[in-house]
Amino acid sequence: MASGFRLVFAISQLLVLLDLCQGSIVGICYGRNADDLPTPDKAAQLVQLHNIKYVRIYDSNIQVLKAFANTGVELMIGVPNSDLLPFSQFQTNADTWLKNSILPYYPATKITYITVGAEVTETTGNVSALVVPAMRNVLTALKKAGLSKKIKVSSTHSLGVLSRSFPPSAGAFSSSYASFLKPMLEFLAENQSPFMIDIYPYYAYRDSPSNVTLDYALFQASSEVIDPNTGLLYTNMFDAQIDAIYYALMALNFRTINIMVTETGWPSKGSPKETAATPDNAQTYNTNLIRHVINNTGTPAKPGQKVDTYLFSLFNENRKPGLESERNWGLFYPDQTSVYNLDFTGKNAVDMNPDANVTSSNGTTTWCIASSKPSEEDLQNALDWACGSGNVDCTPIQPSQPCFEPDNTVSHASYAFNVYYQQNGATDIACSFGGSGIKVDKNPSYDSCIYMTAGSNKTIASSNTTAISSTSSSATVKGVPAWIFTCFLVTFISFLFIS
Predict the structure, then answer these.
(1) How far apart are CA 97 and CA 90, in angstroms?
(2) Which of 56, 106, 300, 496 has CA 20 to 30 A from 470's CA?
(3) Distance (Å, rounded) from C-alpha 318 to C-alpha 340?
(4) CB-based burial label for 333 (10 Å; 0-12, 13-18, 19+)
(5) At what angle do helices 376-387 and 409-423 cross, to 10 degrees?
(6) What is the pLDDT of residue 21?
(7) Are residues 314 and 305 in contact, defined by beta-carbon separation less than 8 angstroms?
(8) Residues near 230 by Cβ (< 8 Å), separated by ≥ 6?
(9) Residues near 6 by Cβ (< 8 Å), separated by ≥ 6?
(10) Is the per-residue pLDDT at 52 higher than 50?
(11) What is the Cβ-side half-sphere exposure of residue 89, based on CA atoms within 13 angstroms?
(12) Mind listing the pLDDT tens digit for each residue in 219-268?
């Protein structure tokens, strides 16, 4: 009997540990408030090309759901604020929506989260009272379909739900939202759903530059901000804002709810007074953020804690109202070219000047070719994108043309990858192709098939980047992040315990 209990306990602990060992994820928000965006099919191809595995959309648009079918990309979909009233009033409305808008495309389209309402405390009208009833009806619909364990239900919030956020240990929810938040938090705790928050250090700096330094907002602070109540040291605004949420939750005795950042980012352009809205600052913030998140650095109050995070946003959106910055949060222009270079893996050095032609650190010319490791399907998808949305002239790899032979996907993809690479600054990210491209310093030209090179070369050492690692030396074990080492160690011990 005792051994049976130990076995069950060990297995349950092992499952929890395996979940923790997965690490935090970085996704992208795919907003569509624009009249010049590419089709959802092309957007899905762009997402795959850059090896982005998690996408948030703000509705359940059928064309978008179809575009992401069989891609392996995990979608977070949304019930807009305009639909909260019918969803909260009648269970049948939520049932019908799930039946007609979700189930026909699931599981080919991998949906993992449904957000019911978005930042309702920022909207006019008393819609906040509708959110939890609507969430309950959506969850009931999912239970009827047997999907409540696979698709989590939550709602997103702005930092405005807090009445106080500094120091982080004094974080507290506004009493104005008490009647809305209490049942919301009870729902999240009961169903193990995350508290979703949209966090923007950019606004904190823009609106109060005398109190918040730019370096602190960009993860580049050389000094710490001390929480006087706890003595914890903060080197960036992102962590401080998340910990303010943690402390606000703990103050209401909700200690088991995880936090998910459903929007964060930095604009690349702004009005004349928005001097911090530049491509360099946007690149610096997002690069440092990605590294901070995927390293499972956690926060000072919650070291090592997973914080899944979604960058805002995929494209610039020209129909968004407000200051110029509101239309310039995208990583890509509508023509699918990069606003600035960004490595979603967080592992590589990033060229901080996207207009420069980059060679290896010793000054030699480099080319980009197809790796032999990806599957035939992945290579073909990347080749199709390069010859289509990537604007590569693929005439030379057509029959009877100089680069058609050898007639195989690796050879054809190598030619197309290199053209794209050279035309887009010969940067690391221009040779990513979702992990299908590799850089070489040996000219791959053969016979009459000539691989192009950039017209001029400027050398940028691979170590020259403004991005900084957010993990201290104490958080690694011989180059391996401590959380990975710990996960393997405890998992191994759990297996011994079971046996």
Answers:
(1) 12
(2) 56
(3) 18
(4) middle
(5) 40
(6) 54
(7) no
(8) 167, 168, 169, 300, 301
(9) 497
(10) yes
(11) 6
(12) 998 888 999 999 999 999 999 999 999 999 999 999 999 999 999 999 99
> Could you please report the per-residue DSSP string of 226-283?
E-TTT--EES-HHHHHHHHHHHHHHHTT--S--EEEEEE---S---TT-TT--HHHHH
The predicted pLDDT at position 60 comes to: 97
CA distance 106 to 62: 12
Q: Which of 269, 418, 240 is nearest to 333 (CA)?
A: 269
- Distances from the Cα of 82 to the Cαs of 13, 127, 381, in angstroms? 42, 9, 37
Token pair listed for 37: 């965006």
Taking the C-alpha atoms of residue 116 and residue 133, their distance in angstroms, rounded to an integer, is: 10
What span, in angstroms and rounded, lies between the C-alpha atoms of 335 and 485?
A: 42
Catalytic residue positions, numbered: 119, 263
pLDDT of 470 strictly over 50: no
Residue among 64, 65, 63, 76 nearest 25 (CA): 76
CA distance 110 to 261: 20
CB 263 within 8 A of CB 312: yes
Residue 213 has pLDDT above 70, yes or no: yes
Q: Which residue has the tokens 């408030």?
A: 33
Q: Please, which pLDDT band fits residue 434 given cuts at 50, 70 and 90?
A: confident
Tokens of 59: 């509705």
CB within 8 Å of 313: residues ≥ 6 apart: 28, 29, 30, 31, 263, 265, 329, 330, 331
